[in-house]
Amino acid sequence: MPAIVLVGAQWGDEGKGKATDLLGKDVDYVVKFNGGNNAGHTVVVGGEKYALHLLPSGILTPGVTPVIANGVVVDLEVLFHELEALSARGVDCSRLRISANAHVIPSYNRTLDKVTERFLGKRRLGTTGRGIGPTYADKMNRVGIRMQDLFDESILRQKVEAALEVKNHLLVKIYNRRAVAVEEVVAELLSYRDRLEPMVEDTGYELWRAIEDGKTVLFEAGQATMLDVDHGTYPYVTSSNATAAGACTGSGIGPTLIDRVAAVFKAYTTRVGEGPFPTELHDADGERLRANGFEFGTTTGRPRRCGWADTVIGRYATRINGVTDYVLTKLDVLTGFETLPICVAYDVNGRRFDDMPANQSDVHHAVPVYEELPGWSEDITGAREFEDLPENAQRYVLRLEELVGARISVIGVGPGRDEIIQRHPLLDD
Question: Which listed residue (13, 28, 325, 332) is catalytic?
Fold first, then answer.
């Protein structure tokens, strides 16, 4: 099986990094195809914890070629900070490839992101302030700076001048900030050029060639389905396509080359930032989920909003992504709860929705319809076969599987690399 896409099925933070790492030993390439350093993966290897924000998780696996593809926006300062930190811990980063068509996050977009959020006040979107949205906007407005532009100083300067001609008016006249000097931006970007040169290439061609040669390529999404700019809870979404289809446009690979889509679904639900969240808990159970699951953002450190499992979202993710397999994570966090509610539908002003409402305002007003299952108290972190789980834990997994409409192939029972149950293979069957 040469190509598999891995996506998040909720609002992010489902544990995609662990799933990617699990698959890493069986793949040749791991490709990040969307987003930037506005989301992170935490991976535990050999008892050591690694927090990755921009780099593909595959960089931790010897022999795997990690790729930052064209759909990603790259903060060069963050990129080299991560590379230096990993190199200092003995990780080989020499295999990293970066698309020549990937867009660069210039410093002025980080500034604009932060001041715009403050200006919006109570209407803020909850962005991370890292310049992601403004850089994707520049891409669509055709004033963006691509990785390849750093190797032609004349073109780079022209592009920075064109972008700042408008942005400086915004900064000075609307936000009361100082104007940004063209030369300052150009000099900063050029300072990375020599270090970037060995990494930058036509990654779309390399990935196509690899698949043609029978190599296995894993495409990993940043963020998740419900944050997709087209299919998520708009406008409280990210600025890129975090669904399976984004793997094609974000990497330059045709859709007929994708063989399987795996989605990561946390055993409960979390969300960071603003926006609707039907199963959100504002009580002791929510605090308990946050504490037991250590639900704080890898990139931002912000506490995550927590709630019960939502299978309306699960069915939606199955449909939107064409999910073939689910990776269920953090089942161990639910240990000790006497009962475990599962959201099976929404009630909106007396009307039942078994599937995701098409109208965004209905999602905002949705009241979850719960089905309650009995919990378990036994420690499950040592389970390695499905039958090792307590009977009630097995029932919980099987009911989730039935409700989301695709098989649960992998179950995470702890934070460690080997703390998993593999019911079905993800790469060959």
Answer: 13
* Residue 340 falls in which region: left (phi positive, over 0), alpha (psi -120 to 50) or beta: beta
Q: Is cis: bond before 235, omega within 30 of 0?
A: yes
Whether residue 30 contacts residue 62, with contact meaning beta carbons closer than 8 Å, is answered with no
309-322 confidence digits (pLDDT tens)? 999 999 999 999 99
Pairing of β 29-32 and β 65-68? parallel
Q: Please give the single-letter amino acid code of residue 326.
A: Y
The active-site residue out of 21, 26, 28, 41 is: 41
Burial of 53 (0-12, 13-18, 19+ CB in 10 A): buried
**Residue 424 among the catalytic residues:** no
Q: Are 404 and 265 in contact (CB under 8 A)?
A: yes
Cα separation of 125 and 105, whole Å? Answer: 19
Q: Which of 167, 224, 220, 200 is nearest to 76 (CA)?
A: 200
- Specify the pairing of strand 420-422 against strand 367-374: unpaired
H-type alpha helices, 10-129:
16-24, 76-88, 107-120
Q: What pLDDT, on a 0 to 100 scale, did the predictor assign at position 176?
A: 86
This prediction's pTM:
0.91
Q: Residue 367: left (phi > 0), alpha (psi -120 to 50), or beta?
A: beta
For residue 364, what are the β-bridge partners? none
Q: Is 81 a catalytic residue?
A: no
